[in-house]
């Protein structure tokens, strides 16, 4: 498992596992890997993805199988809701909702709203 920059450049692998299985005829085998935020966070930036590369070798035939999966990390969205009627020349209350999906607090965040009629947008520290 490694990170992949938005440019397509892969970082160094930060997790590797090896499994040996015997698969009976007509059966399938499942291997599960859970990657925590604490494990991948130091390796990814805000536009990165994770790349999982799996390779398998069949002892009896010498055949090698490989597959890659790229997982894009989604950025949470802001939800904007008008809380009253939007009338020209009057203030309109707007609710902005952001939910932190991470298992740790976000610090140093700010919110800046811009739009028609907003003379001096001021960032709001969160």
Automatic annotation (TrEMBL):
A GO molecular-function annotation: protein-glutamine gamma-glutamyltransferase activity
- The Transglutaminase C-terminal domain covers 3-67
Question: What transmembrane ranges does the database entry give?
Answer: none
Q: Does the keyword Chloroplast apply?
A: no
Q: Look up the EC number in the record and give it.
A: 2.3.2.13
Arranged from A to Z, the UniProt key words for this protein are: Acyltransferase, Transferase
Offer one Pfam family short name for this entry. Answer: Transglut_C
Does the UniProt entry include the keyword Disulfide bond?
A: no
EC primary class: transferase
Q: What is this protein called?
A: protein-glutamine gamma-glutamyltransferase
- Species of origin: Vireo altiloquus (Black-whiskered vireo)
Q: Which gene carries the instructions for this protein?
A: Tgm1_0
